[in-house]
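mind reviewing this fold:
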Amino acid sequence: MAQLSVIIPTYNEERTICNVVQAVRNSVQVEKEIIIVNDGSTDGTSEILEHFRGDPEIKVIHQPENRGKGYAIRLALSQVTGEYVVIQDADMEVDPFDLPAILKPLLNKSSYVVYGSRFINGRNNSPLVGYIANYLLSCLVNLLYNTQITDESTGYKAFATSLIKSVDLQCEGFEFCAEVTAKVLRMQHRIHEVPISYFPRRKNEGKKLRFWRDGLTAVWILIKYRFQKMH
């Protein structure tokens, strides 16, 4: 059993996936498994991932069609054996060398949920529109769930495996962030935030999140699960 499972949902990331995997491998010296879900990539990602075939530390799951980030994460969770789970984006917007800081509250048992916050210390390279959208989402979370977080939609989320596997996730796309945040808070778990580096890329560099469309979806999800009866 690995101590850490790192889930990397991947869609058309041929330019960055190798760098991300290598950085994850070098960032933390604990027994770990890296689970990469190739979510129906149409570029050269599938061929690149074949280079990891036979690597004992890496599992690659090829999803034949693009189903979305949330679906990829749920698929990977069914394969997780580690005591802790980290969601790692495949695009290098967040730095894998922040992993030790994210893991620390889990390892010392001070929290079951850790988010790497891009904004805990300010705007941190973020485009103004993105920063405002994320700020408003975090304000909504804090208002609805009586908490204090600064980055609801961060690409760095870490959990005790027993906790994340107990969450009834239904998401398929980017709404994973809002759903898991809402349900974890409804379960009365405090989200511990640690500051991380942030290197945002632009749409022409492959960024897939659309602030207003995906932001409005997140608003609906946060409101929905605040008042929906929990199973």
Q: What stands out?
A: The longest helix spans residues 128-145. The mean pLDDT is 92.
